[in-house]
Amino acid sequence: MTGQSSFDYLIVGAGFAGSVLAERLAKVGKRVLLIDRRPHVGGNAYDEIDAAGVLIHRYGPHIFHTNSDEVVAYLSQFTSWRPYEHRVLASVKGGLLAPIPINRTTLNLLYGANLETDEEAEAFLKRRAEPVARIETSEDVVVSAVGRELYETFFRGYTRKQWGIDPSQLDKSVTARVPTRTNLDDRYFTDKFQAMPAAGYTRMFERMLDHPGITVELGVDFAEVCDRVRFDELIFTGPIDEYFDHRFGRLPYRSLRFEHATLDQAWLQPVAVINHPDEAVSYTRVTEYKHLTGQSAPKTSVTYEHPCDEGDPYYPIPRPENQALFKRYEALALATPGVRFVGRLATYRYYNMDQVVGQALATFRRMQRLET
Ligand code: FAD
Ligand code: UDP
Fold first, then answer.
1. Is 233 helix (H, G, I), strand (E, B) or coil?
2. What does the mean pLDDT of the chain come to?
3. Which residue, 176, 198, 219, sits at the end of a domain?
4. Does residue 238 have its Cβ closer than 6 Å to ligand 1?
């Protein structure tokens, strides 16, 4: 419970969207109350030391990568970085570990192909690719690039598990996040900046929010705070349909159950993440955190991700009808004075962390322009 009960801003949600805006607004002299219904800051990027002494991510692996100098410069005020380039293997064909995104090594491994140049790999894929007149779905993107066999090996099962629908029902933007390469680059991302916050995400958030103008209240819901506290403006970073009491119906979100485990062995797998496209396996991927943090410990901590419908909303589901429903909420939001919607759930966008930071910084700039 806060002593002070009057603020310039109430910000709902202490993830990237809410915390960046709290920090920016406090810096220009505003009094901010930042709340979260969870008992911690950081939103989905929250990390913590577990019983084995390993820094784990409570809500699944969060790998930082960006091409934005502005976002790096901003966050670097609150953390130093541990260089880390993410590499992922997929367990296919009954246990063969193959690099994903598909690259020349993947093709050589799977087909014993001995492809030596980009051109050879390109020609190899061209022979398999199926022409698709208009690329609209997540199936189209992959089938038109690598053909049906590789699509079924790497994408169909994973996507059906992750989203609960077939890739043919999902917008192309989802599987288009994972490129196809003809070179030997086996990194998951190619962004120019790839690193992990050296002391973890939570520490970075704590430093961001360490300002006399920011009051943080955790374990409280917006519904219980809004009557008790006076504020001039509201910034909401939770699900936009929830804010409007699901007036037009529920926006679909996909959830995950995170199964955390500590194993009595030093290492489980050769890389931080192994993807499991096989539909007979209930989880989609397994993360071993010591690869991300560079820690050494006698035990190892891992997380299995089990996708599900019920539970916290983690992923907006990119489909045309969902976007149309979001647009109705967005129009309502624009017509509602005194409140701004920022972040992955509030703007129903499948955004990475850096994109949410960028969106929050842009929102702050717009707010500043309106004030002058
Ligand atoms: P959130 O982090 O969801 O924060 C919103 C907060 O609002 C939550 O803490 C919630 O408790 C709170 N809240 C909501 N409603 C209320 C209410 N009514 N009252 C009080 N509090 C409320 N991005 C990357 O860049 N790299 C990755 O590797 C990566 N991996 C990911 C893995 C998983 C499993 C998931 C789910 C996401 C991943 N992301 C990754 C995306 C990243 O998590 C998001 O981009 C980012 O955390 C979004 O920040 P946000 O502030 O918009 O939302
Ligand atoms: N995907 C897949 N197989 C993989 C990796 C990804 O089918 O081995 C698809 C799947 O639909 C997934 C999407 O590509 O949801 C985006 O993958 P990404 O790794 O970006 O997912 P995120 O980290 O956001 O969960």
1. strand
2. 97
3. 176
4. yes
